[in-house]
């Protein structure tokens, strides 16, 4: 009888220990989320407050969070971030409208944000499809890529995983009096033009230097204080020579550059 009693007491003790341990584990469980943070701030509507545009991995909804709202995180404009954060619902939300508390657990990565490229073109020619096919076949390396511009006149072309594709130096030259080629009217910017600058990208290719010249149009992004770069190339004469029987009148290729492809 005593043996049975001792066995019962022991089982009761083990059950109680297990219950307490599980309860402690439940209390220590953190609601951890992987958060992406945009490289630029945006203005909230009807407000003078600028916020970060964030997203939680596995959720397509955008979050608009003040730069100081993630505890332990220091935001720097111009960088892409991926963070591990603890998310805690607030029982008594503050008057600023925040319903959750964010605490930084880890910076998974922090990269100088590339100006991502959206490549477009326009063709005015009798045999338009021939020119368009050639443009698609010779421009594919740009798809999904982005430029990183450094302060010391350096540039790097990276892919979606930040792997370097090309790099070199660049020069900028203001020429507000210069007239833009007529072909650019085939694909004008859909934003307010601020200024026009010539950009020259120089990069080594084997034993030689390659030079790419662009007419850079800078525009104002609607509803924000940020600008955008448009790299224009007039390819009219090039395609008139390459396809003399195509009836080429105008060809323009444009790289639309922005942090988030807006």
Topology, element by element:
Elements: H1 2-28, E1 32-43, E2 50-56, E3 62-65, E4 70-71, E5 79-89, E6 100-112, E7 115-125, H2 128-138, E8 146-149, E9 154-158, E10 164-174, E11 192-205, E12 208-220, E13 227-234, H3 236-242, E14 248-258
* Cα-based radius of gyration, to the nearest Å: 28 Å
* Main β sheet profile: 8 strands, antiparallel, barrel
Query: What percent of the residues sit in helical stretches (DSSP H or I)?
Result: 10-25%
Which regions have little confidence, pLDDT < 50, spanning 5+ residues?
Answer: 7-27
Number of strands: 14
| Structural class designation | alpha+beta
Q: Please give the alpha-carbon distance between the first and last residues.
A: 79 Å
Largest beta sheet: what is the strand line-up?
7-8-9-10-11-12-13-14
Return the string of H and E elements.
HEEEEEEEHEEEEEEHE
Count up the helices: 3
Mean pLDDT over all positions: 83
């Amino acid at each position: 009888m005593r043996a049975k009693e001792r066995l019962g007491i022991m089982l009761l003790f083990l059950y109680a220990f297990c219950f307490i341990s599980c309860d402690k584990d439940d209390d220590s469980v953190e609601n951890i989320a992987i958060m992406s943070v945009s490289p630029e701030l945006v203005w909230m509507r009807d407000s003078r407050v600028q916020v970060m545009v964030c997203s939680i991995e596995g959720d397509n909804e955008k979050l608009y969070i003040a730069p100081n709202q993630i505890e332990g995180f220091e935001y720097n404009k111009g960088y892409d971030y991926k963070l591990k954060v603890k998310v805690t619902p607030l029982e008594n939300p503050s008057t600023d409208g925040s319903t959750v508390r964010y605490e930084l657990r880890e910076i998974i990565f922090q990269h100088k944000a590339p100006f991502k490229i959206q490549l477009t073109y326009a063709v005015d020619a009798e045999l338009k499809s021939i020119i368009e096919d050639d443009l698609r076949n010779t421009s594919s390396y740009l798809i999904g890529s982005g430029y990183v511009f450094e302060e010391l006149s350096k540039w790097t072309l990276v892919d979606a995983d930040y792997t370097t594709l090309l790099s070199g130096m660049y020069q900028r030259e203001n020429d507000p009096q210069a007239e833009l080629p007529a072909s650019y009217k085939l694909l004008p910017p859909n934003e307010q033009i601020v200024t026009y600058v010539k950009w020259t990208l120089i990069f080594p290719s084997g034993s030689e230097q390659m030079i790419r010249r662009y007419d850079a149009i800078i525009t104002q992004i609607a509803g924000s204080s940020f600008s955008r770069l448009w790299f224009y190339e007039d390819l009219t004469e090039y395609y008139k020579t390459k396809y003399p029987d195509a009836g080429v009148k105008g060809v323009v290729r444009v790289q639309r550059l922005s942090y988030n492809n807006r």
